[in-house]
Write a structure and sequence with these properties.
single chain, about 250 residues, seven-stranded mixed sheet, 12 strands, Rossmann fold, alpha/beta
């Protein structure tokens, strides 16, 4: 057994990951399978963002991925910072909260909400993001806007739900005008990519492509097997034009 893993008895309840313990969750999505096998998820996203997230920052993440990145973000922003994570799916939200609690992350604030263009109650199937349903259930979830969170500061918005960008931006107009955060988004796909990138540019942002592989050769569990051969995410990192941010290692869109 790899010396980075925990006992057989404990692994029935917990996984040991790069940024802390996580509870065992159903292996019905790539994030869960990656956490189980590699002890991390989409580490190349973290590699890119590590140069932009600093101590004392406030970050908003939409789509919890069981807290896989919230655990890192909590360490990156430190005790003076805040991490807000919105996850609309009931069980996924509860599992994320469990991971936040067992790691004692007092600077992480969780929201059982969908982030959209207006306050509403809606079934998940009617919302624009691609959110997997478990056991065929189509829960009705609460929708709020980013503006309704009334955050005192905001340095980064990270959107993990493909297809949710346009509505989220519509409900975040005042927050973005006030705080001018960086944006990091998983795009919805070829048909929507041009519209999504243009919506970001219309807010006065520059955009760069980021195409991280799901498999990291230097993964925490030191596993050589690649269960995501050739699989990448189609992401965009964006910065306000006035910030003079440059990202020479990526292609500007």
């Amino acid at each position: 057994m790899n010396n980075k893993t925990i006992s057989t008895e404990q692994t029935s309840r917990l996984w040991n990951t790069r940024y802390g313990l996580t509870t065992v969750v159903p292996l019905d999505c790539p994030a869960a399978r990656s956490l189980q096998l590699y002890g991390e998820w989409a580490e190349q996203e973290i590699d890119l963002l590590s140069g932009s997230v600093e101590d004392g920052h406030t970050v908003l993440e939409f789509g919890g991925d069981y807290g896989a990145h919230a655990l890192w973000l909590a360490q990156a922003v430190g005790t003076r910072g805040q991490v807000h994570v919105a996850e609309p799916r009931r069980l996924a939200f509860q599992q994320m909260c469990a991971n936040v609690a067992i790691n004692g992350l007092t600077n992480v604030y969780t929201h059982a909400r969908w982030l959209g263009r207006c306050r509403d109650q809606a079934p998940l199937s009617s919302l624009p993001g691609k959110v997997a349903q478990r056991n065929g259930d189509d829960e009705t979830v609460s929708v709020i806007t980013v503006d309704e969170l009334e955050l005192d500061a905001l340095h980064l918005i990270k959107i993990n739900v493909p297809g949710a960008l346009i509505d989220l931006l519509a409900g975040a107009a005042e927050t973005i005008r006030k705080h001018r955060p960086m944006l990091y988004i998983r795009l919805a796909g070829i048909q929507q990519a041009e519209t999504e990138v243009q919506a970001i540019k219309d807010l006065g942002y520059r955009c760069w492509s980021h195409v991280p592989y799901l498999y990291n050769t230097d993964n925490y569990a030191e596993q050589a097997s690649n269960i995501f051969p050739g699989c990448v995410s189609q992401n965009v990192i964006a910065s306000p034009v006035e910030s003079r941010f440059e990202l020479e290692t990526q292609h500007e869109l």
